[in-house]
Specification:
The structure is a single chain. The strands form five sheets. The chain has a four-stranded antiparallel beta sheet, with no helix packed on it. A three-stranded antiparallel beta sheet has the order 1-5-9, with no helix packed on it. The chain has helices spanning 2-21, 170-180, 198-206; strands at residues 24-30, 36-39, 52-53, 59-60, 64-70, 84-87, 96-97, 104-106, 116-119, 125-126, 134-137, 140-141, 155-158. It has one domain (22-206). It is of the alpha+beta class.
Length: 213
């Protein structure tokens, strides 16, 4: 009796371990068809991803949608949005979120009953990045149940918080002025139309003082 009970307990532990370690994958992922730039602002007053622009100023929907599944390709409902994020290259640019200051931005919602989530709301953060972004799940780059990695996403971000310290202040004005009177840089092309002009100055002025509080 003792031996059978011990074997049963051991079996239950194995089953429980298998359930808790069952990998989670990205079964489907949609992203912009071409390079898209999103204006982000500390506090979240930037534009939604649906109102992104290409580097030449054309409107583009940059919404990112993903279906999260388990290793059996069953939709993983209720997956925390905090485990799902976009990550921009830390070594190039100053992109930073409002919570930790890292170049990562979490999904808008937990996954629904179909395992779906998306990123479409204005991003709360600052800084800039020419991308590309990596779709991350549970701390790892997204891949399918067949271990095929999903391509990097053609996403850029820029912000009146140019230096990425999560507040728009005089230090950002100085960086903007340097770009405005010097060589072109996308970080100051806030209107994202390929030129630095009065439209960018207006956006800089509109968001002066914005922070993550």
């Amino acid at each position: 009796m003792f031996l059978r009970r011990s074997m049963l307990l051991a079996l239950l532990q194995i089953v429980a371990a298998a359930q808790t370690t069952d990998a989670i994958w990205v079964g489907a992922l949609s992203d912009p068809a071409e390079t898209a730039c999103v204006l982000i602002v500390p506090g979240g007053a930037g534009v939604p991803l649906t109102a992104a622009r290409t580097p030449t100023g054309a409107p583009i929907d940059a919404t990112v949608e993903a279906t999260i599944v388990d290793s059996s390709c069953i939709p993983a409902g209720g997956q925390s949005r905090m485990d799902i994020w976009l990550e921009f290259p830390a070594e190039a640019g100053t992109a930073s979120n409002c919570i930790s200051g890292s170049p990562t931005f979490v999904a808008d919602t937990n996954t629904d009953m179909h395992g779906m989530t998306h990123m479409a709301l204005p991003i709360q953060g600052g800084g800039w990045s020419e991308g590309p972004a990596v779709f991350m799940l549970n701390g790892f780059p997204a891949h399918t149940p067949d271990y095929d990695y999903w391509p990097q996403l053609l996403l850029q971000v820029n912000s009146p918080d140019i230096n990425g310290d999560r507040v728009v202040d005089l230090s950002d004005i100085a960086a903007f002025a340097g770009d405005y009177h010097g060589a072109f840089h996308m970080r100051s092309d806030l209107q994202r139309d390929g030129v630095l002009n009065l439209a960018d100055i207006a956006l800089m002025a509109t968001h002066m003082g914005a922070d993550c509080r």
